[in-house]
Design a protein that fits this description.
about 140 residues, alpha+beta, Aminopeptidase, globular
Length: about 140
């Protein structure tokens, strides 16, 4: 397994492959909601590859001069339970720290809240609906 982080077009394509499989095909989320205007040439992606196959991903968005937002964290079904979600999130956190950012936030599904808490994130506010899914915002200082 190999993790790559950057904004190269092939990383965007690899990330979209994983997200299409997980969010659209497996979970039946609307394709128009999954692939939004935040997937741009500047967007940073973290992708784990099993040889040539992308198997886990996350993306990093810039919120402001001090804060990034990590989202669209997904792992193909057959690769779950191998800490690949932690790998892609940790990779983006390290990238953000190198760039001088001081804080990360996530809009997590309620079912993923514990995952982020184990990585040092804390809940901010109450649950809300985002694209038909119950979510909560969590934050972490670097």
């Amino acid at each position: 397994m190999k993790t790559e982080i950057g904004n190269e077009i092939y990383l965007r394509a690899a990330s979209c492959y994983v997200r299409m499989n997980v969010f659209v095909i497996e979970r039946h989320l609307a394709i128009a909601d999954e692939f939004d205007d935040q997937d741009t040439a500047e967007t940073i992606y973290s992708v784990v590859f099993d040889e040539l196959t992308p198997v886990a991903t996350a993306r990093l968005l810039i919120e402001n001069e001090k804060t990034v937002r990590i989202g669209r964290v997904a792992t193909l079904n057959e690769y779950r339970g191998k800490n690949l979600g932690r790998e892609v999130v940790s990779g983006l956190e390290a990238f953000a720290i190198e760039q001088g950012y001081q804080r990360s936030l996530v809009h997590a599904e309620l079912t993923a809240e514990l995952f982020y808490q184990k990585m040092g994130y804390s809940r901010v506010g109450e649950p809300y609906d985002e694209d038909g899914v119950d979510c909560v915002t969590l934050t972490k200082a670097f």
